[in-house]
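#onboarding

Welcome to the new folks! Below is a worked example of what a typical request in this channel looks like: someone posts a single protein sequence, and someone else replies with the predicted structure as tokens. Don't worry about understanding the tokens yet, we'll cover that in week two.

Example request:
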Amino acid sequence: MTTTLTVQLTLEECSQLVEAPAASLIEIVEYGIVDPDGGSPRDWRFDAVALGRLRQALRLQRELELDWQAVAVTLDLLDEVARLKAENESLRRRLLRFMEY
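Example response:
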């Protein structure tokens, strides 16, 4: 039997973990960079994937001095690159199977 543990963090917990003010996290959510569960900041719950994306967004904003809109576009492009790389690798493996015969 496999057990999956899902971690759900509040806005305050995320704020502490990523070392950023809650106002910054609210702004990140407003730009659609992260989509927590819940209707309002008080009710928001962030999972491990959202926490990683928050860290990535904050790092881009701090190191490259991007505004949140640019961070959102950059993360979307990075996601697309990762998707295309995975698709390319899958197609490459399929092609190799045909070439072996």
